[in-house]
From TrEMBL:
Residues 410-432, 909-918 have a biased composition (Polar residues). GO terms for biological process: protein deubiquitination; proteolysis. This is Ubiquitin carboxyl-terminal hydrolase 47. Its EC number is 3.4.19.12. The gene is Usp47. It comes from the Eukaryota. Residues 862-879, 933-949 have a biased composition (Low complexity). GO terms for cellular component: cytosol; nucleus. Keywords: Hydrolase, Protease, Thiol protease, Ubl conjugation pathway.
Length: 1355
C-alpha cells in the first residue's frame, strides 16, 4: 500500500511576494540499515533556529533530542563535515541553508552511539504537524492495480512511537489491509468495543490461541493502551485458523464482515453477547408480491446485516447520483406482467402483480455496501465501477420505512411457510444475498449446522431515524486488486482520522468528499474509466439516539478481567522494550573459526553486549563454536579478520579487559570486518598480528614426491625485499636459502617467480593476503625456463585440479577383453564400421589387429626415435622413466613396464598414423579413443588395483619430459588441418575431445606440453546410496574435456564411453546430462557430484529430438510421444524407419512408413512438411532438444515437392453456429484462386459465394463462434497468399471459410448467454482468448476450531 503523499510536508507556493521564504530540508536517517532508505521532509520558515530544526526532527523520527547529529548531505562526504550544533540559535538562513532549494541532511550517530528512542507518548506535538508517512488518501488518479499497493517498508523505530493522533495503527501482514480496515472500524465503535470488553474469557474452557473473541479483546486493549505506532494482527489471524499464505490473499471487506460476525455469533452462543451482532447490526425487511387485480399480498420477513446498493442500474450507463437515490431504487417495486405474471392464490389464475422490498426495521448500526464490483459480460471480466456516488454525513431513513402494514385491510399470507402470525412470518434465511444459513457457504467450518436463531421483533419505528456517518471503508485500485483503508470519525472529539494500516493521521471533511468517486469533468458513457480508482466501498452509520449512544469505557471503568489483561500486556510491552534496549546495545558481527580437528571453516554470528569484555566475548565464541570437548579455552582468542581476502588484520594483545563496543568501534548494523576465533595447540604460542602487516600463506613444494604441503601462515611487510623474505621463510619451512625458489600466485593460475632479490614485496604485487609456493632442491629444474620447469607444471596442475564424487551404475565393471570380444563378434555394427574407418579402409575390407600392427611397425620405430631425439633431456628422461611411473598408481603397475610402454606407443601410433581419417568420421571422440582396445590388446584392462593416477598429454604424441615424467594415458586427439576449418556445432555431442588449442603450420600443438591430471580412488559414501552402487573420489584437471574424462572412467564403469552418460548433480538433487564432449570441466567445482548412467550417449552429429503427435481435430492437438535420436546427414525417410519400431514398442502405434509424415513444430504450431528425401542439416536445420510433429495420414502423402503448400481449412456454418473439423488442402502454388477452387471442391460451396479468412494466433486458432462471423478479415482482396494481410508462406496456416449466402442463426438472450458461457469455458480450457489469468482465489473462511479440516476440500 502506498500511502498518500498529500500530507507530506513539501514546499507550498508563495502566494504573496512579501511572505517569508521557506527552507525545504530533506533528512536521511543513516543510523540504521532499515532506515537508510527513508526520507524525512520538513518545510520550515527561513528564520527558524537550528535548535528548533533538531526538535522537529526528533519529533518526526521518535529520537531523544541531543542523542543524534545532523550533517550536510549535499553530495559531501559526511565523515569530513562538522555536524550542526543542536543548541544553536542561528536561523536556518544564517546557517547556510538555501531557501527555495532542497537542503539534504544526514542524521548520524552521536559520538559513535546510536540515537536513543523516545518511548513516551508524544502528546505535546503540534496537531498541525502531519505524520511523515501518513496521507489520508492515495494520490488522485493513481493507477489501480495490485502492484501499486505494496506495503511501504518502515523502520522498527518508526513503529515504536504512537502517532501524534494518539491512535495506534495495524501492521499489514502482506495483503491484509481489508482486515485492518474492518478491525479499526469495530474498535472505533463504542457499543461493540464495550460489549467485547464485558465478555470474559475462560481459559479452562478454550485455548486462548484459537479463541477469536479473546484475541480481538487483546487487540483492542493494545490499540487503546499501547505506546507503539502500530501493532501486529498475527494473533488474530491465527485464531481464525489462517496460515501465512492467507496473508497473501486479498478478500472483500464486506465478505469478511459477514464471515467474522457469523464466527463471533458461534463463539458467543449461550453468553451475554449471544445476540450482540443482531442487536447492533441486524435489520428487517419484507419481500412481497401484491396482486394488482384483487390486492392480495404474499410476503415473507427477511433479516439483513447490510444493504447492498447498486452503483448503476442493470443495462444503464448512468450511475445513481447519491446513496438516497440508490436506496429508493432498492425498494422500487417491479411489475410482473406478460410471461412473468404471478399466480394469485385468491384469483386462482396468473395476474399482473407488483413485487418489491419494504424496510420494516433499521438496525442501530446501519451498514451500506456500495456494489462497485461488477461483471462485464462483453469482456467476461470483473470490473470496478468508479462512478461518483455522494453520501451525506447525516442520513434520514424515515422516508424508507414501511408504514403501510399497519393499515393494510387485506389478509396477508407468508409465502415462506404458509403460517400466519400477526401478519408476519419470521425467517432467518435472507434473500438478495443478505445471508445464508449454510455455515460452509458463509465461510465458517462447523461440526454441525446451527439451528434457527431467535430474532427480536420490535415494532415499527416511530422515533427519529437520523443516522450519522462514522466510518467510510475506501477501496483504491481495480477489480483485479487494490488497497483498503478506513476513514473513521471518533465519537470522543468528532474528528475524522485516516487509518491506513500502520499509519494514522487526521483528515478533514474535504478528504471524505474525495471518496465519493467519479471524475471532475463529464466524459459521458466512459466517465467511469477515467474516474479516480479511490472511492468509498462500505459506509457505516450510527443511529442518533442519546438514550443508546454510548461512550468508550475509560480505564478505570474496565471490568476486572480487562484490567488484568491490560496489566499483562503492559508487562509484555515493558519486557519487549527492555529486550529492544539490549538489542540496541548488542554488537552483532560475523564470527569464523577453523575447526582444529576437522579443519573446516565454520561460520556463525557473534552477538555480544557492548559492555562485555574481550575475555568474556572469547568465552561466548568458544561455546558457540562447540569447542569445549576439543580444545582448552586458553588456546583460543579473537582476532580481527577479513573473510573476503582471508586476511588476519590484527590481534588484541593486552586488551582482554577492553569492552567489545570500544574494540569494534561501537554498535553498528554492519561492520566492514569480521572476527576469527583463532586456535593453537597447547605447546604453541599465538603470533602477534599488527596493523600494516601482510599475511602470506606458504606452501612447501616437494618436486620429487610431487606434493604441495598445507599452508603455513607468516606475517611480512610490503617494504621487505625478496631476499629478506627468503630469510624469513627459511626459518619457518626449514629450507636452504641458496637454492630456494619462491612463486607468488597473484590470482587464479597467475604464477610469478620472485627472481629479483632486491625487489620489494610491494613491487612484486603482494597485497593484504597472499599465497606463495616455496621449493628448494638440488635438481637442475631451476636452470630451465620457469614456464617449462617441473615446478611450474606441478603448480599448474595443483591450481587446476578439482575433486569430484562419481556415482557408478549398479553394473559391476567388466574387462576390456570382454568388450573387445564383443566388438569382434560384431555385436555393435556401428563400432565395426568405426574400426573400418579408423584404419582407412572400406567397410568390406576390415583388417585384423595383427595386420594393423605389422603395417605400423616401421612408422612406430621411427616415431619413437624422433621423440627421443626431440626430448629436452633424453638421457635423463630415459633413466628416470621407470621410477616415475612407479609413482603413478595405475592398473598397468601389475604389468611389465617395458611392455606397457610398447603398448602405449602402439596405441598412440594407431591414433596418429593416419590423421586424415578424422575428417570423415561421424562418431564421438569416445569411440575413437576406446576403439584402441582392439589394437592395444589389453593395455587398459581393469586390474585388481582400484586407483588410477595419470598425467595426460593434450597432444596425441608421447613427449618425454626433462623431469622424467611421461604421458601415460592419451585422452585427446588433435585437430588436423583437414578438420581445423570445420564449424563445430556446440548443441551436439562433439568428436573433438581435446582442448581448443591452435596448431601451427607444422601441425604440432602449441599447447603440447599441457598435462591433464586424473586420479580415481574408491570412496565410501554415506549409507542410503543403494546396494550395488559404488562411488569414486576423482581428482582431475578441470581443463580436461568431457570426452577425455569419460575415457578415464571407462575402466571403472565397465563399458565404452559411448555407452554411458554423465549427469551432473546440483544442490537440489536435480540431474542434468552433460553432452558437449569438447567442453572442459571448468564449470565444475570441488566436491561436485556426478552420476553415471548406462545408455547410449550422443555421437558427433547426433541430436536428441522430442517427437509429438499432431492431432488437428482433438481438444489438445499436441501430444508427446517419445524421445528419438536423429543424425546429421540422415534423410527424413531413414529417421522414419528408425521411429517405426520405437512407436510400436513405446507408444503402441502400429504405423507403416508411408502412412505418417514429420513436420516442423514451433511451439504448438505445425509448420513445414518434411519430405522423405530431405537431409538433416542440409535441407532441414536441426538443433539440440529439437521438437518435431508426427502426423498420421488418412491416405497417401500428397506433398511431393517444396513448391507445394499444405494448409488446414475449417468451414464455419453460421446458420448452425458451429465449426466443422479441419481438412487439409494441398496447393501447387500460392494462388488465392487455387485456394478458392480447392475449398469449393471439398465443400460444394459455389465459387462466387465462397469467402475465406486467415486464422489468428496459435494453432488451432480458436475463436468464439459468437465472434468469428464479424471479427475475422473475410475475403481479403489479394491474388496471392504470401502478401499482406495473409502472409502465408509456410505449411500449417489455418484458413476459415464460409458460404456468404448462409444467414446467421438468430439467438434469444437466453441462448446467447448460455452459448457465451460454453464458449468462455471452452476457450479458457484451450488457453485461447484469455488475456488475463488471475491466480485462483481462495474462499474466505474462518475456522472455529482454530485450523482447517485437512480432510475437506477448502476451495
Amino acid at each position: 500500500m502506498v500511502p498518500g503523499e498529500e500530507n507530506q510536508l513539501v514546499p507550498k507556493e508563495i502566494e504573496n511576494a512579501a511572505e517569508e521564504p521557506r527552507v525545504l530540508c530533506i533528512i536521511q536517517d543513516t543510523t540504521n540499515s532499515k532506515t537508510v532508505n527513508e526520507r524525512i521532509t520538513l518545510n520550515l520558515p527561513a528564520s527558524t533556529p537550528v535548535r528548533k530544526l533538531f526538535e522537529d526532527v526528533a519529533n518526526k523520527v521518535g529520537y531523544i533530542n541531543g542523542t543524534f547529529d545532523l550533517a550536510w548531505g549535499n553530495g559531501i562526504n559526511t565523515a569530513d563535515t562538522v555536524p550542526l550544533d543542536h543548541t544553536s540559535d542561528k536561523s536556518l538562513l544564517d546557517a547556510n541553508f538555501e531557501p527555495g532549494k532542497k537542503n539534504y541532511l544526514h542524521l548520524t550517530d552521536k559520538d559513535g552511539e546510536q540515537p536513543q528512542i523516545l518511548l513516551e507518548d508524544s502528546s505535546n506535538v503540534d496537531d498541525s504537524v502531519h505524520d511523515r508517512f501518513v496521507g489520508p488518501l492515495p494520490r488522485e488518479g493513481s493507477v489501480g492495480s495490485s502492484s501499486d499497493y505494496v506495503s511501504q517498508s518502515y523502520s522498527y523505530s518508526s513503529i515504536l512511537n504512537k502517532s501524534e493522533t494518539g491512535y495506534v495503527g495495524l501492521v499489514n501482514q502482506a495483503m491484509t489491509c481489508y482486515l485492518n480496515s474492518l478491525l479499526q472500524t469495530l474498535f472505533m465503535t463504542p457499543e461493540f468495543r464495550n460489549a467485547l470488553y464485558k465478555w470474559e474469557f475462560e481459559e479452562s474452557e478454550e485455548d486462548p490461541v484459537t479463541s477469536i473473541p479473546y484475541q480481538l479483546q487483546r487487540l483492542f486493549v493494545l490499540l487503546q493502551t499501547s505506546k507503539k505506532r502500530a501493532i501486529e494482527t498475527t494473533d488474530v489471524t491465527r485464531s481464525f485458523g489462517w496460515d501465512s499464505s492467507e496473508a497473501w490473499q486479498q478478500h472483500d471487506v464486506q465478505e469478511l464482515c459477514r464471515v467474522m460476525f457469523d464466527a463471533l455469533e458461534q463463539k458467543w452462543k449461550q453468553t451475554e453477547q449471544a445476540d450482540l451482532i443482531n442487536e447492533l447490526y441486524q435489520g428487517k425487511l419484507k419481500d412481497y408480491v401484491r396482486c394488482l387485480e384483487c390486492g392480495y399480498e404474499g410476503w415473507r420477513i427477511d433479516t439483513y446485516l447490510d444493504i447492498p446498493l447498486v452503483i448503476r442500474p442493470y443495462g444503464s450507463s448512468q450511475a445513481f447520483a447519491s446513496v438516497e437515490e440508490a436506496l429508493h431504487a432498492f425498494i422500487q417495486p417491479e411489475i410482473l406482467d406478460g410471461p412473468n405474471q404471478y399466480f394469485c392464490e385468491r384469483c386462482k389464475k396468473k395476474c399482473d402483480a407488483r413485487k418489491g422490498l419494504r424496510f420494516l426495521h433499521f438496525p442501530y448500526l446501519l451498514t451500506l455496501q456500495l456494489k462497485r464490483f461488477d461483471f462485464d459480460y462483453t469482456t467476461m471480466h470483473r470490473i470496478k465501477l468508479n462512478d461518483r456516488m455522494t453520501f451525506p454525513e447525516e442520513l434520514d431513513m424515515s422516508t424508507f420505512i414501511d408504514v403501510e402494514d399497519e393499515k393494510s385491510p387485506q389478509t396477508e399470507s407468508c409465502t415462506d411457510s404458509g403460517a400466519e402470525n400477526e401478519g408476519s412470518c419470521h425467517s432467518d434465511q435472507m434473500s438478495n444475498d443478505f445471508s445464508n444459513d449454510d455455515g460452509v457457504d458463509e465461510g465458517i467450518c462447523l461440526e454441525s449446522n446451527s439451528g434457527t436463531e431467535k430474532i427480536s421483533k420490535p415494532g415499527l419505528e416511530k422515533n427519529s431515524l437520523i443516522y450519522e456517518l462514522f466510518s467510510v471503508m475506501v477501496h483504491s485500485g481495480s477489480a483485479a486488486g487494490g488497497h483498503y483503508y478506513a476513514c473513521i470519525k471518533s465519537f470522543n472529539d468528532e474528528q475524522w482520522y485516516s487509518f491506513n494500516d500502520q499509519h494514522v493521521s487526521r483528515i478533514t471533511q474535504e478528504d471524505i468528499k474525495k471518496t465519493h468517486g467519479g471524475s471532475s469533468g463529464s466524459r459521458g458513457y466512459y466517465s467511469s474509466a477515467f474516474a479516480s480508482s479511490t472511492n468509498a466501498y462500505m459506509l457505516i452509520y450510527r443511529l442518533k439516539d442519546p438514550t443508546r449512544n454510548a461512550k468508550f469505557l475509560e480505564v478505570d471503568e474496565y471490568p476486572e478481567h480487562i484490567k488484568n489483561l491490560v496489566q499483562r500486556e503492559r508487562e509484555l510491552e515493558e519486557q519487549e522494550k527492555r529486550q529492544r534496549e539490549i538489542e540496541r546495545n548488542t554488537c552483532k558481527i560475523k564470527l569464523f573459526c577453523l575447526h582444529p580437528v576437522k579443519q573446516v571453516m565454520m561460520e556463525n554470528k557473534l552477538e555480544v553486549h557492548k559492555d562485555k569484555t574481550l575475555k568474556e566475548a572469547v568465552e561466548i565464541a568458544y561455546k558457540m563454536m562447540d569447542l569445549e570437548e576439543v580444545i582448552p579455552l586458553d588456546c583460543c582468542r579473537l582476532v580481527k579478520y577479513d573473510e573476503f581476502h582471508d586476511y588476519l588484520e590484527r590481534s588484541y594483545e593486552g586488551e582482554e579487559d577492553t569492552p567489545m563496543g570500544l574494540l569494534l568501534g561501537g554498535v553498528k548494523s554492519t561492520y566492514m570486518f569480521d572476527l576469527l576465533l583463532e586456535t593453537r595447540k597447547p605447546d604453541q604460542v599465538f603470533q602477534s598480528y599488527k596493523p600494516g602487516e601482510v599475511m602470506v600463506k606458504v606452501h612447501a613444494v616437494d618436486l620429487k614426491a610431487e606434493t604441495v604441503d598445507a599452508p603455513i601462515t607468516v606475517r611480512a611487510y610490503l617494504n621487505q625485499t625478496v631476499s629478506e623474505f627468503k630469510q624469513l621463510i627459511s626459518k619457518v619451512v626449514h629450507l636452504p636459502v641458496e637454492t630456494m625458489r619462491i612463486v607468488l600466485e597473484r590470482c587464479y593460475n597467475d604464477l610469478r617467480l620472485l627472481g629479483v632479490p632486491s625487489k620489494t614485496l610491494k613491487a612484486e604485487g603482494f597485497f593484504r593476503s597472499n599465497k606463495v609456493f616455496v621449493e628448494s632442491s638440488e635438481t637442475l629444474d631451476y636452470q630451465v625456463a620457469f614456464t617449462d620447469s617441473h615446478l611450474w607444471k606441478l603448480l599448474d596442475r595443483h591450481a587446476n585440479t578439482i575433486r569430484l564424487f562419481v556415482l557408478l551404475p549398479e553394473q559391476s565393471p567388466g574387462s576390456y577383453s570382454k568388450r573387445t570380444a564383443y566388438q569382434k563378434a560384431g555385436g555393435d555394427s556401428g563400432n565395426v564400421d568405426d574400426d573400418c574407418e579408423r584404419v582407412k579402409g572400406p567397410v568390406g575390407s576390415l583388417k585384423s589387429v595383427e595386420a594393423i600392427l605389422e603395417e605400423s611397425t616401421e612408422k612406430l620405430k621411427s616415431l619413437s626415435l624422433q621423440q627421443q631425439q626431440d626430448g629436452d633431456n633424453g638421457d635423463s628422461s630415459k633413466s628416470t622413466e621407470t621410477s616415475d611411473f612407479e609413482n603413478i598408481e595405475s592398473p598397468l603397475n601389475e604389468r611389465d613396464s617395458s611392455t606397457s610402454v610398447d603398448n602405449r606407443e602402439l596405441e598412440q601410433h594407431i591414433q596418429t598414423s593416419d590423421p586424415e581419417n578424422f575428417q570423415s568420421e561421424e562418431r564421438s571422440d569416445s569411440d575413437v579413443n576406446n576403439d584402441r582396445s582392439t589394437s592395444s590388446v589389453d593395455s587398459d584392462i581393469l586390474s585388481s588395483s582400484h586407483s588410477s593416477d595419470t598425467l595426460c598429454n593434450a597432444d596425441s604424441a608421447q613427449i618425454p619430459l626433462a623431469n622424467g615424467l611421461d604421458s601415460h594415458s592419451i585422452t585427446s586427439s588433435r585437430r588436423t588441418k583437414a578438420n581445423e576449418g570445420k564449424k563445430e556445432t556446440w548443441d551436439t555431442a562433439e568428436e573433438d575431445s581435446g582442448t581448443d588449442s591452435e596448431y601451427d603450420e607444422s601441425g604440432k600443438s602449441r599447447g603440447e606440453m599441457q598435462y591433464m591430471y586424473f586420479k580415481a580412488d574408491p570412496y565410501a559414501a554415506d549409507e542410503g546410496s543403494g546396494e550395488g552402487h559404488k562411488w569414486l573420489m576423482v581428482h582431475v584437471d578441470k581443463r580436461i574435456t568431457l570426452a577425455a574424462f569419460k575415457q578415464h572412467l571407462e575402466p571403472f564403469v565397465g563399458v565404452l564411453s559411448s555407452h554411458f552418460k554423465v549427469f551432473r548433480v546440483y544442490a537440489s538433487n536435480q540431474e542434468f546430462e552433460s553432452v558437449r564432449l569438447n567442453e572442459t570441466l571448468s564449470s565444475f567445482s570441488d566436491d561436485n557430484k556426478i552420476t553415471i548412467r548406462l545408455g547410449r550417449a550422443l555421437k558427433k552429429g547426433e541430436y536428441r529430438v522430442k517427437v509429438y503427435q499432431l492431432l488437428v481435430n482433438e481438444q489438445e492437438p499436441c501430444k508427446f510421444l517419445l524421445d528419438a535420436v536423429f543424425a546429421k546427414g540422415m534423410t527424413v525417410r531413414q529417421s522414419k524407419e528408425e521411429l517405426v519400431p520405437q512407436l510400436r514398442e513405446q507408444c503402441g502405434l502400429e504405423l507403416s512408413i508411408d502412412r505418417f509424415r514429420l513436420r516442423k513444430k514451433t511451439w504448438k504450431n505445425p509448420g513445414t512438411v518434411f519430405l522423405d528425401y530431405h537431409i538433416y542439416e542440409e535441407d532441414i536445420n536441426i538443433s539440440s532438444n529439437w521438437e518435431v510433429f508426427l502426423e498420421v495420414l488418412d491416405g497417401i502423402e500428397k506433398m511431393k515437392s517444396m513448391s507445394q503448400l499444405a494448409l488446414l481449412s475449417r468451414r464455419w456454418r453460421p446458420s448452425e453456429m458451429k465449426l466443422d473439423p479441419f481438412q487439409e488442402v494441398v496447393l501447387e502454388s500460392s494462388s488465392v484462386d487455387e485456394l478458392r477452387e480447392k475449398l469449393t471442391e471439398i465443400s460444394g460451396i459455389p465459387l462466387e459465394d465462397l469467402e475465406f479468412a486467415k486464422g489468428r494466433g496459435t494453432f488451432p486458432c480458436d475463436i468464439s463462434v459468437l465472434d468469428i462471423h464479424q471479427d475475422l478479415d473475410w475475403n481479403p482482396k489479394v491474388s496471392t497468399l504470401n502478401v499482406w494481410p495473409l502472409y502465408i508462406c509456410d505449411d500449417g496456416a489455418v484458413i476459415f471459410y464460409r458460404d456468404k449466402t448462409e444467414e446467421v442463426m438468430e439467438l434469444t438472450d437466453e441462448q446467447r448467454n448460455e452459448l457465451m458461457k460454453k464458449e468462455s469455458s471452452r476457450l479458457q480450457k484451450t488457453g485461447h482468448r484469455v488475456t488475463y489469468s488471475p491466480r485462483k482465489e481462495k474462499a474466505l473462511k474462518i475456522y472455529l476450531d482454530g485450523a482447517p479440516n485437512k480432510d475437506l476440500t477448502q476451495d
